[in-house]
Amino acid sequence: MEFIKCKNLEELGQLCANEFKNIIVKKPNAILGLATGSSPIGVYQNLIKMYKNNEISFQQITTFNLDEYLGLKHEYEYNSYRNFMNENLFNAIDVNKNNTFFPCKTSDLLDSKKDYSDYDKEIANKGGLDLLILGIGSNGHIGFNEPGSSKNSTTRVVELTSSTIKDNSRFFNNNINDVPKYAVSMGLQTIYQAKKIVLIVVGESKKQAFEALKNHKEFNADWPCTVLANHPDTKIFYIEN
Ligand code: GLP
């Protein structure tokens, strides 16, 4: 893991976007793994700028998002991760939306036994993720791999912890009962298999998770982010609080 300290959000957004640009310029049909949340928004804004300046094109790009809510109430459909990506990136670039994938639809019926690992197979069939961007939860989750997740987990139904539900209630008028309790998320193994990973750590609430990441040289299921400890090409972009 390489730790890269950034002066501010602007610098962080630019540096992470450059990681994307380097890949896309070398491989115009790259396979990208994408995250939602506040952390990557600045990166997406920079990618949009690069696209508008004709520095990069997404015409041949395929994307796989990390996760998606299950059982989102209809009135909160705007909070779906598909909608987030449309609004924050896809609508402003030349990506073919048929090549943008999510592990489930928010309207899928909750079936904890349903096998979602075809998502991993689709990623592998396309040659694997060339670059995956990640945010981090205050409890150290990546994607929605909550504490206790197995290192060998693949894309599957996950139950959100009460701390994640509380963190995400800010998008649901602070109404904890309206936050979905389940999601489908790439697993830790799916994430680990990405050829290159960029993780963003910003904000006071991430302090403990960040410490755990720095201090663990091996995977510890209490802090799912530590799966990155042995990943061969992970860069962590952070702002010191
Ligand atoms: C959600 C997402 C994660 C994201 C995390 C942090 O729980 N499933 O992928 O990393 O939130 O979000 P933020 O960047 O808004 O702090």
Walk me through this protein's architecture.
The chain has 241 residues and is α/β, with parallel strands linked by helices. The protein has seven helices and ten strands. It has helices at residues 9-26, 41-52, 81-88, 118-125, 162-168, 188-192, 207-215, and strands at residues 2-5, 31-34, 62-65, 67-70, 100-101, 131-134, 156-159, 182-185, 197-201, 234-238. α2 (41-52) links the parallel β2 and β3 (62-65). α1 crosses α2 (41-52). The chain is globular and about 45 Å long. The mean pLDDT is 96. 2-amino-2-deoxy-6-O-phosphono-alpha-D-glucopyranose binds next to α5.
How many angstroms does the end-to-end distance come to? Answer: 20 Å
The counted number of beta strands is: 10
Coarse morphology: globular
- The order of strands across the largest sheet is 1-10-9-6-2-3-5
Provide the succession of SSEs: EHEHEEHEHEEHEHEHE
**Level of helix content?**
25-40%
As residue ranges, the low-confidence spans are none
Derived structural class = alpha/beta
Integer-rounded radius of gyration: 17 Å
Give me the number of helical elements: 7
- Report the major sheet: 7 strands, parallel
What ligands can be seen in this structure? 2-amino-2-deoxy-6-O-phosphono-alpha-D-glucopyranose
How would you state the average pLDDT, rounded?
Answer: 96
Strand content: 15-25%
